[in-house]
Amino acid sequence: MNISSDVGSRIRRLRRAAGLSQADLAGGELSPSYVSLLEAGKRTPSLDVLAQLAKRLGCDVSELTGGPVEATIGDLEVKLKYAEMALNNGDPHAALEAYRSVQDTATPDAQPEIWYKAEHGVARALEHAGRLEEAVAHLEGLRSASVDRPDLVAHLTVVIALCRCYRELGDLSHAIELAEATLEELQKLNLAPTVVGVELLSTLVGVYMERGDLHRAAYLATRAIDQAGTITDSRALGAAYWNASVVMHRNGNTADALTLIEKALTVYAEGDDERALARLRNAYAMVLLQSETPQPQAAHDVLEQSLASLRSVGSSVDVAYCLSALARAELRLENVSAAIDHAEEALRLLGTEHRLQSARNHLVLAAARLAQGDRTAAQQAYERGALMLEASEANRQAAFAWAELAEILKLCGEDERAVWAYRQSMRCMGHRETFLTGQPLTSRVRG
């Protein structure tokens, strides 16, 4: 901290002018003897102490220092640690404010390491707050910077965050293209497996699952487990088990999915990341809910436990994911009103940017409205969800949504619209040659 040598005399002069004793100036946070040492020039006050003194003296900090205050690297590191703590405690707004406060003091030229740490923190805080478009803008800037300054910006970490954001925004093709290109670069370097490399593989597994490419997802999940097995970091193995279990579940192999996700739970339970453990419990509950012998009450109990944790340490998006799963469990338990409440709260928390999860949530809400007997609201929710899924290139999921909508339309006696919805389902599954009757070309020829 660059503070002129006569800061002590300034403190003494301003104290006397204000008619304060050293005890008055010390207040409850400092001691009179410490103030005496400051005035004698035998102690150098921190930025926080200067701010306290200036407040009691009714002046600006610059009046005490004789010029603008420049924070030391130590002061900035403390602010970064506070921001990280706020983010880990589920308060992205406080974290964002703290990271930006660091950037108000540090500059890319004078303190590049500090500034880039804060910039990455800003991007993470924006992502946790659900402000995905803004997060992407910062992350793309960091990705460009990682080319010129690989010593300051971790390229893989930035790419992983970008893939997550693009996935949530529904831009699956961009997420896959970016991750696959990065994996190809890693393969050319022929490096030993790393924790962050396994994390990239696991992230890509999730994107392929959303798009419905389960074969590629399964291959990458197996590869992630193999690589994680060569690394001493148990968290990497836990993440690989987590994603592999979801692939197994999507492929209808519930038994293996449960085995893998229980292994992942064992790994995460030994750590101290409460947020990650709660999110993993969400995935576990979904397997319980959609297994060959569904266990809705067990899933409900697990989700209630997760929700309690995420409301204190998770982001609003984490809470929304849990509420969406809880709505499914309530629906299975025939608690329709509770299912609707959870689904609607989840949609409010997701906002407009988390398009993929919002689409799935509309489908849950549609099923709940149908169970409630409100077919019109169910139709609207199914159609909206299907369109959002299709726009996100989640064609497999969209096909099922269109098929469910067709069934509702049939129940409502709207046969023409039901045929139209069936045709949308077939189109999403790759069947292009259909007639207005909705029959495939092969069926027409055989007839």
General description of the model:
Keywords: Coiled coil, DNA-binding. InterPro entries: Cro/C1-type_HTH (IPR001387), Lambda_DNA-bd_dom_sf (IPR010982), TPR-like_helical_dom_sf (IPR011990), TransReg_Diox_bact_type (IPR050807). Residues 326-353 form a coiled coil. Helix content is 76%, strand content 0%. By secondary structure, it is mainly α. Among the domains are: 3-63, lambda repressor-like DNA-binding domains (434 Repressor (Amino-terminal Domain), Orthogonal Bundle), CATH 1.10.260.40; 292-435, Serine Threonine Protein Phosphatase 5, Tetratricopeptide repeat (Alpha Horseshoe). Helix 16 (274-289) packs parallel to helix 18 (316-332) and helix 19 packs antiparallel against helix 20 (355-372). The longest helix is centred in the middle third of the chain and has 18 residues, at 172-189. The relative contact order is 0.05.
Number of β-strand runs: 0
Proportion of residues in β-strands: under 5%
CATH architecture heading of the domain at 292-435: Alpha Horseshoe
Spans where pLDDT lies below 50 across 5 or more residues:
433-447
Radius of gyration over all CA atoms, rounded: 28 Å
SS summary, helix count: 24
Our measurement of the CA-to-CA distance between the termini, rounded to an integer number of angstroms, reads 87 Å
Structural class: mainly alpha
Which sequence of SSEs, written as H and E, runs from N to C?
HHHHHHHHHHHHHHHHHHHHHHHH
